Amino acid sequence: MIWSLLACQSESNKQEAAVVETPSVQVPLFQADSAYAYVAKQVAFGPRVPNSKAHRQTGDWIIQQLKAWGWEVQEQPFTAVTYDGVKLKSRNIIASYQPQVAKRILLGAHWDTRPMADKDVARVNEAIDGANDGGSGVGVLLEIARSIQASSVKPQVGIDMIFFDAEDWGAPSSSTAPPINAYGGYCLGSDYWAKNPHKPGYSAYFGILLDMVGAKGAQFRYDTESMQAAPSVVRRVWDKGASLGFGRYFIFEEAGGLIDDHIPVIREAKIPMIDIIDLRKNDKFFFDEHHTHGDSMPVIDKSTLQAVGQTVLAILFEETAEVS
Ligand code: ZN
């Protein structure tokens, strides 16, 4: 994921924030300890760089977990070609809950990690752990999948989770290679899925992407395209986060433009999808350790995982099956 445009803050969007009244329903308590363990498990496999053993093993483990929790799992294999001409043996992993239900919510996260540490000062050509950038989103999604299976109360809607592959082999800022896609060489898996959905004609009521959702002191500001594509979803998620007591994470401010997996989904699959992503108000834009070897387990904070996981669970459980 990269920052594509200058950050700007929109006061007008702040004023438009509306309080959304949601029905009172029971929502399972999100278990941050469990989500944390799923992040640690991925990191323990090693960097999840496509074509590596750790990547293959992690994908197999994600699938095994989801199947064990009763989710219907589909693999979508594809070959991605990177900005520097490397062919990546890739697969998107799609898990569905209540596949028979017409109204569907799409959740996403990328499960691959960056093959380089181009923002670091040492070992720049070595793959990073990607505990936050990659691992955290997958950890939160897996815990959501597990908690829905374990819960006695169930969401009314159908849910599809897509674990996107080949997100993070984008061109570094030093690259002079010609662009291979509209996303700086990033988002190869989401671009493939958006052009080749796992079910022909697939759509969803709305989507939520999770990326870098585990760092200590995370600040979730919304990006321009999320707000353009799905303003009511952005407001609802941020309001829900605040109402649950996570207002210090969910900061209702526009951060600027951004390239991430929700963009192909919005533009090509025409699904209104938002991104929950840690966007800081400084010149780094992301968390300090972004695309460095510092993106490892010590940056992960269970309180941040809790804020995101509980908010998304509430959104899922409060959504009614009726299409309004
Ligand atoms: Zn990244």
| Beta-strand fraction estimate | 15-25%
Question: In DSSP terms, counting alpha (H) and pi (I) runs of 4 or more, how many helices?
Answer: 9
Spatial strand arrangement across the major sheet: 2-3-5-4-6-10
Cα distance spanning the termini: 33 Å
Could you say which overall geometry the principal axes of the C-alpha atoms support?
globular
Structural class: alpha/beta
**Segments where pLDDT lies below 50 for 5+ residues?**
4-21
Helix and strand string, N-terminal first? Answer: EHHHEEEHEHEEHHEEHEH
Look at the structure and give the mean pLDDT: 93
Q: What are the distinct ligands in this entry?
A: zinc ion
Summarize the biggest pleated sheet.
6 strands, mixed
Share of helical residues: 25-40%
| Strand segment tally | 10
The Rg value, from CA coordinates, equals 18 Å
Which key terms come to mind for this protein?
324 residues; 6-stranded mixed beta sheet; two-stranded antiparallel sheet; 9 helices; 10 strands; 19% strand; binds zinc ion
